[in-house]
Design goal:
Layout (H helix, E strand, L loop, with lengths): L4 H10 L6 H21 L31 H4 L6 E2 L2 E2 L7
Antiparallel strand pairs: 1-2
Helix pairs in contact: 1-2
Length: 95
């Protein structure tokens, strides 16, 4: 795929980047080089290669999936300017 000057201007517009007319040619070349590299990556044989999320094998730390009330209502409301029971008191904003 080759990027022309109109495409460079459109990409710059979508990215909200100001591009001068004398920069369009250079940016087109850079975008073409990036796209050529991506096309080169597609030729790599990855058959049988597991996807990696990290270079080190590790297990994700998980917590038990249980429903609780949190148990920290007093700690959360400790700095509240005004509270009632376990709730913040705020001014009415909807009539």
């Amino acid at each position: 795929m080759s990027v022309d000057q109109a495409t460079v201007r459109r990409i710059a517009h979508l990215a909200r980047i100001a591009v001068e007319d004398d920069e369009v040619e250079r940016l087109g070349g850079e975008l073409n080089a990036i796209l050529a590299f991506v096309e080169e990556l597609s030729s790599v044989d990855v058959e049988g290669v597991e996807p990696l999320t990290s270079v080190l094998p590790m297990q994700m730390k998980k917590r038990q999936d249980v429903v609780t009330d949190g148990g920290f209502a007093d700690d959360v409301l400790a700095n509240a300017p005004e509270r009632e029971d376990h709730y913040f008191v705020v001014p009415k904003v909807v009539e």
